[in-house]
Amino acid sequence: MSDFYIPTWDEIEKAMLHVAEQAVDSGFVPEVIVAIPTGGVVPSKLLKDILNIERIRYIEIKLYKNVGKKDVKPVVKSVCVDDIEGKDVLVVDDVADSGETLEAVSNVLSMFNPKSVKYATVYIKPWARKYPDFYYKMIDKWIVFPWDKWDVVREIPEVNVDNKEKYLEIERKLRETHY
Ligand code: 5GP
Ligand code: MG
Ligand code: MG
User: Fold this and answer.
1) Is the pTM of this model over 0.80?
2) Which of 40, 161, 171, 176 is 20 to 30 A from 134, comparing alpha carbons?
């Protein structure tokens, strides 16, 4: 199953420390984080903790339906970004692939008149149109994150991830009681 890149929780922790250090070294310390749910939520929380930032806000954008298959255009599902006028904003997502999600976020944010906007992702694909300002690593495979691996196991049960037996047991119980 070498079609996937499967980082551990420990790699994610190291990655977010790396991204935070990049931001600090560049002189950028945001006042607000805008997370892109759901993949950007855990990286946002980790950056909030490391950088001691008070607030996380959200722009929910859907692009991919399934592993490796994408919709034609990103769709903005909800926007929760009160009071960012005049503020330094850091947008955080798990990965920039085509870069369309970050472009869509950029368009939405411009209407709220922030002072500055920078972008951080854990990973970036080499073919991305919009590169984030801060990221940990370039990866050219489908990334299975610790927070979305059971989605992948549901679709591709043979994928090799930690703790799969326990998950499959829960899935069996769910099927018995709910379907
Ligand atoms: P883009 O708009 O840059 O093409 O895609 C970014 C969004 O697609 C991310 O917010 C993420 O949800 C999803 N995505 C893109 N590539 C991957 C990947 O390799 N693994 C996972 N889990 N999600 C991805
Ligand atoms: Mg996403
Ligand atoms: Mg996702």
Assistant:
1) yes
2) 161
End-to-end CA distance of the chain: 30
- In whole angstroms, give the CA distance from residue 75 to residue 93: 15
Q: Is the CB of 93 under 6 A from ligand 1?
A: yes
Query: Which residues place a Cβ less than 5 A from the ion ligand 2?
Result: 39
Q: Of all helices (H) and strands (E), which one includes residue 145?
A: none
The SS3 call for residue 115 is coil
Which residue is listed with tokens 């069996």? 172
- Of 172, 152, 176, 177, which Cα lies nearest the Cα of 162? 152
What does the pLDDT look like over 85-111, one tens digit per residue?
A: 999 999 999 999 999 999 999 999 999
- The pLDDT tens digits of the residues spanning 124-136 come to 999 999 899 999 9
Evaluate whether ipTM surpasses 0.90.
yes
Residue 28, C-beta contacts closer than 8 angstroms, at least 6 positions apart: 88, 90, 116, 118, 133
